[in-house]
């Protein structure tokens, strides 16, 4: 057996989580603005990957990012790289999976920041950018972190979309979840046991960490 | 007329309405805040805090004009609004609003202009904490402070930014009598040293009497009486 698919999975999940963190916190900051028009609709669109069948998401991404699509062809022209059926495709699939987790948690965490503290910062001469970095972000960090960890777990467990736009190419886009599937379909269950154990342990560790963060956050809010 | 009207104060003319029907609340006030302490006195729900928020630019009035010296902060007719951060207002919030993730020095430094070099900012913050008797909290975070200590740190933070106007929203409501008397005296001396136009909201007669140079009595969104603290004497 090989451990390569597992390393690939971790690498994909890590990069996808960083992408989801940056985009997700940005979007959550926007969504936390009470006066943003249509914000519940935007929230719904961003959350839809949680409930949409992976094949449907996969179809959208294939359509949007394919060689002959508007986005896909522009990207290929600009950077001379393909997105579909490559490592990048896997990262995109996992980012889409992780994004709703980050956006949801980050939005709640940002909205939970006491509005008076933001007002206090304004009276003390801070503009919106400084307030974001020095008040909102540090106070929402714990909640954002919980979302990021969940997003990482979700990215690591991504299967359906990765299969559709990654292509399950051994040593290239065959992540741990796809490897396990292939081994079991080929009646080689035993070669998948190690990876099954590691993925299970990761999932439990992640949930433990998130619970821990949420508990600490609840405690801190009591002051 | 209020004392000391040499034009160095804050001029406020604010009108706004919120809600509908029986829930309707309207505010319509016009007054000056000269250097020294002006008390905005009245029962809760009369629009005292709303007035402070309008002055600070945390809330937009429907009509009116707010100016400080020759500088316009709000002009309803010209639809002009000067951003809060440029008004130079120190605002002591009712809940104090200390940043829970920063130490006392961090809190006090927050409002000091960042054109001042960092060591100097720290030194200034430490000096103010010392002056207010809470130097020992410099490296500690707000959740470990007592009520009076938190109040002093908040006051230090408000003054460190070298404000042009000080707004105090029920600053001592959570404190016992001794502490209240002590802090009132501190605020009075700090304000008179700086000749700082100060507007203090309170519904507490004793506090108004102890603190105020000039009193604006408010009821149902209007100023119903102005004068020296003598207007607080009587059946109230």
Description of the molecule:
The complex is a heterodimer of chains A (223) and B (236). By secondary structure, chain A is mainly alpha-helical. Chain A is built from 10 helices and no strands. Chain A has helices at residues 4-31, 39-47, 54-65, 70-79, 87-112, 115-123, 128-156, 160-166, 176-185, 189-221. In chain A, helix 1 runs parallel beside helix 5. Chain A starts with a helix and ends with a helix. The model of chain A is unreliable at 219-223 (pLDDT under 50). By secondary structure, chain B is an alpha/beta fold. Chain B has 6 helices and 11 strands. Chain B has helices spanning 48-56, 104-110, 118-131, 147-160, 177-194, 205-211; strands at 10-18, 25-33, 36-41, 63-68, 71-75, 80-81, 89-92, 165-169, 197-202, 214-219, 222-227. In chain B, the strands form 2 sheets. In chain B, strands 7-8-9-3-10-11 form a 6-stranded mixed beta sheet, with helices on both faces. In chain B, a hairpin with a 6-residue loop joins strand 1 (10-18) and strand 2. The interface between A and B is medium-sized, with 18 and 25 residues.
Major sheet details of chain B? 6 strands, mixed
For the sheet with most strands of chain A, the description reads: none
Radius of gyration of chain A, in Å, reads: 20 Å
Beta-strand segment tally of chain B: 11
The stretches of 5 or more residues of chain A where confidence is low (pLDDT under 50) are 219-223
How many helix segments of chain B?
Answer: 6
* Strand-pairing-aware structural class of chain A: mainly alpha
Tell me the series of helices and strands of chain B, N- to C-terminal.
EEEHEEEEHHHEHEHEE
Shape of chain A: globular
Give the % helix of chain A: over 70%
The amount of helix of chain B comes to: 25-40%
Q: Give the number of helices of chain A.
A: 10
Mean pLDDT of chain A: 90
Radius of gyration based on Cα positions of chain B: 18 Å
* Total DSSP E strands of chain A: 0
Derived structural class of chain B = alpha/beta
Question: In one word, what is the shape of chain B?
Answer: globular
**Spatial gap, N to C terminus of chain A:** 53 Å
């Amino acid at each position: 057996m090989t451990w390569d698919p597992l390393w690939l999975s971790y690498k994909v999940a890590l990069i996808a989580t960083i992408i989801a963190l940056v985009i997700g916190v940005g979007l959550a900051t926007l969504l936390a603005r009470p006066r943003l028009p249509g914000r519940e609709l935007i929230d719904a669109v961003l959350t839809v990957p949680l409930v949409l069948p992976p094949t449907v998401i996969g179809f959208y991404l294939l359509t949007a990012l394919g060689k002959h699509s508007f986005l896909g062809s522009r990207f290929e022209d600009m950077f001379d790289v393909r997105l579909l059926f490559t490592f990048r495709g896997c990262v995109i699939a996992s980012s889409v999976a992780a994004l709703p987790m980050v956006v949801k948690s980050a939005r709640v965490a940002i909205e939970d920041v006491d509005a008076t503290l933001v007002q206090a910062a304004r009276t003390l001469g801070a503009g919106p950018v400084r307030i974001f970095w020095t008040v909102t972000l540090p106070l929402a960090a714990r909640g954002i972190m919980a979302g990021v960890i969940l997003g990482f777990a979700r990215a690591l467990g991504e299967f359906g979309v990765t299969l559709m736009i990654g292509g399950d190419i051994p040593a290239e886009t065959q992540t741990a979840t796809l490897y396990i599937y292939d081994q079991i379909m080929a009646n080689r269950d035993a070669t998948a046991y190690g990876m099954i154990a590691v993925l299970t342990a990761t999932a439990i560790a992640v949930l433990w960490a998130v619970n821990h963060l949420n508990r600490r956050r609840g405690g801190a809010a009591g002051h | 007329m209020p004392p000391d009207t040499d034009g160095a104060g804050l001029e406020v003319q604010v009108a706004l309405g919120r809600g509908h029907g029986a829930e309707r609340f309207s505010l319509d006030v016009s007054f000056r805040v000269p250097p020294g302490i002006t008390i905005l006195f009245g029962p809760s729900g009369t629009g005292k805090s709303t007035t402070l928020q309008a002055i600070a630019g945390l809330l937009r009035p429907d009509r009116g004009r707010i100016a400080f010296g020759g500088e316009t902060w709000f002009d309803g007719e010209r639809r002009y609004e000067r951003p809060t951060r440029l008004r130079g207002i120190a605002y002591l919030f009712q809940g104090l609003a200390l940043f829970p993730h920063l130490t006392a020095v961090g809190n006090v430094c927050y409002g000091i202009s960042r054109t001042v070099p960092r060591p100097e900012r720290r030194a200034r913050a430490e000096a103010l904490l010392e002056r207010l008797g809470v130097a020992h909290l410099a490296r500690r975070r707000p959740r470990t402070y007592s009520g009076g200590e938190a109040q002093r740190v908040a006051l230090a933070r408000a003054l460190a930014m070298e404000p042009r106007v000080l707004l105090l929203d029920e600053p001592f409501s959570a404190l016992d009598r001794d502490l209240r008397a002590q802090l009132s005296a501190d605020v009075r001396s700090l304000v008179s040293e700086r000749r700082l136009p100060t507007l203090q909201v309170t519904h507490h007669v004793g506090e108004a009497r102890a603190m105020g140079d000039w009193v604006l009595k408010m009821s149902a969104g209007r100023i119903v009486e102005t004068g020296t603290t003598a207007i607080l004497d009587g059946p109230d």
